[in-house]
Amino acid sequence: MPLGFETAMSEITLVLFTTLAPSGAIACAIVAAVLIAAPLGELERSRINRALCIPLVVTMVGLVASATHLGSPANALYVFFGIGRSPLSNEVLSAVLFLAACGLYWLFCFSEKQHVRLQKLWCAFIIAAALVCVGAIALAYDAPTIATWHTPFVPANVWLSACAGGPLLAMATLRVARAVCLHTAVSAALLGASGAFLAANVACLALQNMQLVGIWNGYGDAPGLVPQYPAMIVSYGAAGAAALIAAALPLRGGGLASPARLVACNVLFFAGLFVVRFGFYMMHMTYGLGV
User: Fold this and answer.
1) pTM: predicted TM-score of the whole model, two decimal places
2) Is 291 inside a domain boundary?
3) Would you say residue 290 lies in a domain?
4) Are 147 and 215 in contact (CB under 8 A)?
5) What span, in angstroms and rounded, lies between the C-alpha atoms of 194 and 161?
6) Residue of 264, 258, 206 whose CA lies nearest to 239
7) What is the per-residue pLDDT across 98-154, written as a single tens digit (0 to 9) for each?
């Protein structure tokens, strides 16, 4: 079994985390922006508030998966001692704060009376927390000791994949909530944003793959760890494009994709993203003699 594959399998929980959590955070931010800016009736606002649990759960699944990588609660506590000086500690703190803000908001929205002004202020904080969370995740993987990760392409790919998957997940969330504000124009804008970020992400991944040729250490060269990386990039681009096209087809007739179709589109997109994130962990190579 190739060493790169073994390395990625040992980090499979982190593969899942970086696949789901950034996109889930961006989706929460988009839904929060709708709750702030869209003219919503009381029932529609209530439905969207409750549907916010969809991207929240997606993000939580990623975070819980990554928490298993720490091994024990003692290690989790040790992580917090590095806040402010450790990118990993900053990542964990920002993710916990974001999930706390979003989760408490969701619970608060089950109160009998709708406090719209307070909800909007809270949603603004959720947006800020989501952006900080994605930024912290992106910076955590730009590790100076890892030759293949210490590159601008690494944080850029985290941001671009989050902004490609987030709008698609937000669209599914609003559709499940039967949001009237999700008409064809808004749907087209969300899918257009996803498509643009997907194209940019694939281009950035291709540039990263080209850069691997010049990276090596005492063990070997980086392309040898992940020879399938070009195929992984193509599979991600194809899966993402297919998901967006499938979601967009009903718009041609003036309709909207059904919730079931959008769920399937999200599954397809994240499956493709999972493959390319797996390749990212396969290329793990430190300076010196290790991988």
Assistant:
1) 0.92
2) no
3) no
4) yes
5) 9
6) 264
7) 999 999 999 988 887 888 999 999 999 999 999 999 999 999 888 788 888 889 999
